[in-house]
Write a structure and sequence with these properties.
By secondary structure, the chain is α/β, with parallel strands linked by helices. Helix content is 24%, strand content 17%. It folds into 2 domains: 14-370, Alkaline Phosphatase, subunit A (3-Layer(aba) Sandwich); 373-506, no CATH class. It has helices at residues 5-11, 41-47, 63-72, 92-98, 158-162, 173-188, 244-274, 308-311, 334-344, 358-361, 481-496, 501-506; strands spanning 16-22, 51-57, 102-107, 126-129, 195-201, 233-234, 281-286, 292-293, 298-300, 315-318, 325-332, 372-375, 381-384, 388-392, 401-404, 429-432, 439-445, 463-466.
Length: 510
């Protein structure tokens, strides 16, 4: 019997992929994940046609390390704090280009174009950077004709110079990025044999700055400048840094940013629809991490264990000819890379840590991993499985600890210009990354050394939570017999991925 055209279409695998990353996207605030506080109608509509992953967790944190997970497929928070793609590895788009697949980056994410993130965009076929968000040094002075200013409160930021150039809603970086993505699809869908589009959208990241009507959408009684910059600290209300009223305003401003970018996300979905891409294109919506907005009186991304609001993140995948469903298997950020690798049929030469989600999507298996690892370099290490989360802090001083890198850079902090990663010194020596023959500089750190920004701050001991029975993480089981079991699980997990031995020593696991 001859194969009909309809049968052939059903059997063909997807040809293209669109990955839309919305930075700082709080899972628990999306309607599709049970949120009721803010409106997210377009994300909810997308979820209604997608596979919604219920146990998806961040890996390397924060922003650039998370993108390394996605684009390189390898956890790096055990080896370094924040940095560009290393010489022993490649971004997935380098492999895709070698396979003749067109790759496009559209983004307003400033960290991708500054020290510590400077080469993530270089292997794309093309890229489009929409200027002016947060730390982007776009303008040298404010627009003198603009009257009024949002409340900043954290010293001068590059955003102060850029903000006056956003007069109307379409002028803001998020709307411009989504408009550019929709335009690229309109101009290019059907013109390339296969393509991968990565929309790296920095919203709803702070500053939570939006025009009206969004700015007052969730806090209409508020008068004066909106509070668009949250403090990055624990106990802001308790310590009097924020009043309860100010705390509500900051949370409302996040909601305004979320609802605004949701509206413009809808423009991209409309472009997918009008270009008939649902039949041959995988569409992934994800984030790098969440954002604390008063949970436990924590704000921003300070140096605390990775609680659920920050580390338990959304992942939604619309796969051609696959019905919408809820998937309860444990997954991690690095699994996105592994899924794209299998989708496009490419071979990767550097070591990776992800698991392809295609067996889950196809219904062939019920799980792809037994645990996920999460953390910030120099901070607690987290192991998550189907039942519990275990956060292990240093057993004593936060040492020994080594930084492994051949590209000595980290995140610049505009209001802390002297905070830089110290250069390697006489303690440095050459070592090898697992699975690589390329020599790498290994710089030991000891107690008292200046640490990178995200590694600063005190620790609060170990934490163990039974997420099934205690999803709010209120009952810390550290110190119980159960912790002994999870300490051994973490030890074995670190050995499985050949983590540096000094990490086990630092944590008292050797």
């Amino acid at each position: 019997m001859p194969v009909t055209e309809a049968q052939t279409d059903v059997e063909l695998p997807p040809r293209n992929a669109i990955l839309i990353l919305l930075d700082t996207l709080n899972r628990h605030m999306l309607g599709s994940y049970g949120g009721h506080e803010f409106g997210t109608p377009n994300l909810d509509a997308f979820a209604a046609r997608a596979m919604r992953f219920e146990k998806h967790y961040a890996g390397s944190l924060p922003c650039i390390p998370a993108r390394h997970d996605i684009l390189c497929g390898a956890l790096d928070f055990l080896w370094r704090p924040w940095g560009s793609i290393e010489v022993w590895e490649d971004s997935i788009v380098a492999y895709l280009r070698q396979a003749g697949i067109v790759t496009m980056l559209i983004s307003d994410h400033p960290h991708l174009f500054e020290t510590g993130g400077e080469n993530y965009h270089t292997d794309f076929t093309a890229w489009d950077y929409q200027r002016g968000h947060e730390s982007d040094p776009w303008r040298t002075r404010p627009d003198p004709s603009w009257i009024g200013s949002p409340m900043f409160g954290r010293g001068h930021m590059p955003y102060d110079n850029s903000r006056g150039h956003f007069r109307d809603e379409p002028d803001f970086p998020g709307p411009r990025t989504m408009t550019a993505a929709a335009r690229w699809l309109d101009d290019n869908a059907g013109h390339h044999d296969r393509f991968f589009l990565f929309v790296d959208e920095f919203d709803p990241h702070d500053p939570f700055d939006t025009p009206e009507p969004y700015a007052s959408l969730y806090d209409k009684p508020w008068t004066g400048s909106h509070l668009i910059w949250p403090p990055y600290m624990r106990g802001a209300v308790e310590q009097g840094v924020l009043t309860d009223r100010q705390a509500h305003q900051i949370r409302a401003c996040y909601g305004s940013k979320l609802t605004m970018i949701d509206a413009w996300f809808g423009r991209v979905i409309d472009a997918i629809e009008r270009n008939n891409l649902w039949q041959d294109t995988v569409v992934v919506v994800c984030t790098d991490h969440g954002h604390y907005l008063g949970e436990r009186d924590i704000w921003g991304k300070p140096n605390v264990p990775v609680y659920e609001p920050l580390g338990h993140i959304p992942l939604m995948i619309a796969w051609p000819r696959q019905a919408a469903e809820s998937i309860t298997a444990l997954t991690a950020t690095v699994d996105i890379f592994a899924t794209l690798v299998e989708l496009f049929g490419i071979e990767v030469s550097h070591p990776t840590h992800g698991r392809s989600l295609l067996p889950l999507i196809g219904g062939d298996v019920e799980s792809v991993r037994e645990f996920a690892l999460c953390g910030v370099w120099g901070r607690e290490l987290h192991l998550i499985d189907d039942n519990c989360k275990y956060a292990r802090a240093p057993a004593g001083p936060n040492a020994p600890l080594s930084l492994w890198s051949n590209r000595w850079s980290t995140m610049p902090v505009p209001f802390m210009p002297k905070l830089r990663l110290p250069l390697p010194d006489e303690r440095a020596y050459l070592d090898r990354m697992p699975g690589s023959r390329v020599p790498v500089i290994r710089q030991p750190y000891r107690e008292g050394d200046l640490m990178p920004y995200w590694a600063l701050g005190p620790f609060s001991g170990n934490h163990l939570y039974d997420l099934f029975n205690d999803p709010e993480e209120e009952n810390n089981l550290a110190g119980s017999k159960k912790e002994t079991d999870y300490a051994d699980r973490l030890r074995q997990a670190l050995k499985q991925i050949e983590a540096p031995g000094d990490q086990l020593t630092r944590l008292g696991l050797d």
